[in-house]
């Protein structure tokens, strides 16, 4: 099928998306270098995203031909999502009581319609006034307690597409895809269907009529929500398990690589460092010495980072600089990003100032040439 962008609706179709997840709660100790490398990569990734957002705010794409094309495509996007099943199995959070949670969706579709509810295609100024229609079929959320986890005798990646469909529809039995549902789901949200309408008025219509600029109406069939006692127990255990895992993960780089029995001293040091770090963060207070230290560090960091950016205008971020890496070791990611964005702003203002200065010099030289010719 050939689709002419800007002339035909763009169809996005997603079908048979299956995902099976389980928790990974074993946290291994990481070296300080490995932690710093991960931190460095995360900072660079987030810095690039922030810079991209800044550029998007400055760009004037919406007034260009490309912006018009993009608006037309989005305004006429036709969406179809069907046969979705995402399942989470947990054998660890509530030991002896394995449970599974999942979300299923039979179909979700959305399209642009006219005043009579028929599918249409809009362009140009008509995009200022858009109407969308959404259809929902059998969206459900389940939480099954005391379950037997799904199991197949071969690798999941070796399953045929038809076997994946069978597993996520009926489960497994004796290491193979089952042919019928062995146990009904315990639904937190019973399968629900419905439809929705969305409309956006033109600015002049909004101003003249006094009606809402955006209007949405949602109609759902019977909505039944229920959380049984066993499900409530499993949710609490899951929340506790995630909280404990996040705590272990946060201090993984302190964690010894040996067992408690072989080196208890290292584990006592680990416990002391973690508790000390938590108490320091909980207090939320800085001494005057720390305030002065961070003020001096901030000035040094921004100045160094800005000078590195100026030395090579072609690069968006500074990579593999030993001085910056050494400073980053003792700083939180949020603080690093804040200081780096300030450095970018300083460089931008400096370049704009230099450009204005050159323009002023050129203007003065032009005036001088005119005076000489007279």
UniProtKB/TrEMBL annotation:
GO biological process: protein retention in Golgi apparatus; protein targeting to vacuole
Domain Chorein N-terminal: start-end pairs: 5-354
InterPro entries: VPS13, VPS13_N
Keywords, in A-Z order: Transport
Alphabetized PANTHER family for the sequence: PLECKSTRIN HOMOLOGY (PH) DOMAIN-CONTAINING PROTEIN (PTHR16166:SF137), VACUOLAR PROTEIN SORTING-ASSOCIATED PROTEIN VPS13 (PTHR16166)
Name of protein: Chorein N-terminal domain-containing protein
Taxonomic placement: Eukaryota, Viridiplantae, Streptophyta, Embryophyta, Tracheophyta
């Amino acid at each position: 099928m050939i689709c002419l962008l800007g002339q035909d609706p763009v169809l996005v179709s997603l079908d048979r998306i299956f995902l099976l997840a389980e928790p990974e709660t074993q946290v291994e100790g990481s070296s300080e270098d490995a932690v710093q490398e991960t931190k460095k990569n995360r900072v660079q990734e987030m810095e690039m995203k922030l810079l991209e957002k800044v550029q998007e705010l400055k760009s004037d794409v919406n007034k260009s031909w490309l912006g018009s094309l993009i608006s037309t495509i989005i305004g006429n996007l036709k969406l179809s999502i069907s046969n979705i099943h995402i399942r989470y199995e947990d054998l660890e959070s509530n030991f002896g009581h394995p449970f599974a949670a999942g979300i299923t969706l039979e179909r979700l579709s959305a399209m642009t319609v006219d005043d009579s509810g028929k599918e249409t295609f809009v362009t140009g100024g008509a995009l200022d006034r858009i109407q969308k229609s959404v259809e929902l079929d059998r969206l459900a959320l389940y939480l099954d307690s005391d379950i037997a986890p799904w199991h197949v005798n071969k690798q999941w990646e070796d399953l045929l597409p038809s076997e994946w469909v069978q597993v996520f529809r009926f489960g497994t039995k004796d290491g193979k895809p089952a042919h019928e549902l062995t146990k009904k789901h315990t639904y937190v949200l019973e399968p629900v269907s419905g439809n929705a309408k969305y409309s956006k008025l033109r600015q002049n219509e909004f101003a003249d009529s006094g009606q809402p600029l955006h209007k949405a109406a949602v109609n759902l069939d019977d909505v039944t929500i229920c959380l049984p006692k066993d499900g409530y127990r499993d949710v609490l255990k899951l929340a506790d398990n995630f909280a404990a895992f996040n705590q272990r993960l946060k201090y993984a780089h302190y964690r010894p690589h040996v067992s408690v029995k072989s080196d208890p001293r290292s584990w006592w040091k680990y416990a002391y460092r973690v508790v000390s770090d938590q108490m320091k963060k909980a207090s939320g207070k800085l001494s005057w010495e720390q305030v002065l230290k961070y003020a001096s560090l901030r000035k040094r960091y921004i100045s160094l980072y800005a000078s590195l950016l100026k030395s090579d205008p072609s690069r968006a971020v500074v990579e593999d600089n030993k001085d910056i890496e050494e400073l980053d070791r003792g700083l939180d990611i949020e603080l690093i990003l804040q200081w780096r964005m300030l450095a970018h702003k300083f460089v931008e203002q400096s370049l704009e100032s230099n450009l204005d200065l050159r323009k002023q010099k050129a203007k003065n030289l032009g005036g001088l040439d005119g005076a000489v010719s007279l």
